[in-house]
């Protein structure tokens, strides 16, 4: 008996050099046994944290043409769709149309969405993407990974306490997704100011038809460096580990955050080694050490413990 393969459609940015978007998602998912079909929403020489970049942006029409090609060959059967950063409303709306069609073909399809809008109080995509995410994307998503700012924007509610965060996650559940992970927040950590707080919430349908909600909290060590591609890696790992632990958000989060920790620690050590004593690493030196982290991606040592919230 062959094990059923799991197929992911990943619609994300692509860079020639480094690990962002599809490259941050595809390799780790493939290592964990997923088949990944990638559509590159942009194709750049490198990420935009470098001094220079060149490349092309895929339009909504071009996305539609690619999808039509997949459909004509009757190979548009997916278990997961994964999306990340985009700057264009018509492209985002086309993504929603594709997901709705794929869900009609496979009602069990799971859509994992990183709703990239901004961080620390400011948007880094055009304002007109906000209503598209809120009214069209989030309602068709099954798993979302906003940061605090994005969760607040999508719900219109501020988070200043853990109770606020739980209420925001409940509001997001009402909008559609059964799994919500607020990847980072400004809430005070119980371990001190060198840690940040992440929170997750998962609604599960019980055999008797009622819904049960598991909520978790994690304390994540802060790192004094700017990485690009970590959000894409996070969403991909949450996809993988919720697949393996569908009704156990605590374990899925511990695995996901532990992978992140191992990759980031390996990257920062390497970057400091290259930069030399007392010098800040440059963007090329801070490219994620993805291939070197293969063993950690496959079987992460658990270094991040989640606390189940009892409210």
UniProtKB/TrEMBL annotation:
Assembly and interaction partners: Homodimer.
CDD domains listed in its UniProt record: pyridoxal_pyridoxamine_kinase (cd01173)
Residues covered by the Pyridoxamine kinase/Phosphomethylpyrimidine kinase domain: 81-272
Essential cofactor(s): Mg(2+); Zn(2+)
Highest taxon of the lineage: Eukaryota
Principal EC category: transferase
Keyword GTP-binding (UniProt): no
Catalysed conversion reaction: pyridoxine + ATP = pyridoxine 5'-phosphate + ADP + H(+); pyridoxal + ATP = pyridoxal 5'-phosphate + ADP + H(+); pyridoxamine + ATP = pyridoxamine 5'-phosphate + ADP + H(+)
Gene Ontology cellular component terms for the protein in this record: cytosol
Name by which UniProt lists this protein: Pyridoxal kinase
Key words of the record: Acetylation, ATP-binding, Cytoplasm, Kinase, Magnesium, Metal-binding, Nucleotide-binding, Phosphoprotein, Sodium, Transferase
EC number: 2.7.1.35
Family matches, as PANTHER family: PYRIDOXAL KINASE
Any single GO BP term: pyridoxal 5'-phosphate salvage
Pathway: Cofactor metabolism; pyridoxal 5'-phosphate salvage; pyridoxal 5'-phosphate from pyridoxal: step 1/1; Cofactor metabolism; pyridoxal 5'-phosphate salvage; pyridoxine 5'-phosphate from pyridoxine: step 1/1; Cofactor metabolism; pyridoxal 5'-phosphate salvage; pyridoxamine 5'-phosphate from pyridoxamine: step 1/1
Localization, UniProt: Cytoplasm, Cytosol
Entry function: Catalyzes the phosphorylation of the dietary vitamin B6 vitamers pyridoxal (PL), pyridoxine (PN) and pyridoxamine (PM) to form pyridoxal 5'-phosphate (PLP), pyridoxine 5'-phosphate (PNP) and pyridoxamine 5'-phosphate (PMP), respectively. PLP is the active form of vitamin B6, and acts as a cofactor for over 140 different enzymatic reactions.
Family from the record: Belongs to the pyridoxine kinase family.
GO molecular function, one term: pyridoxal kinase activity
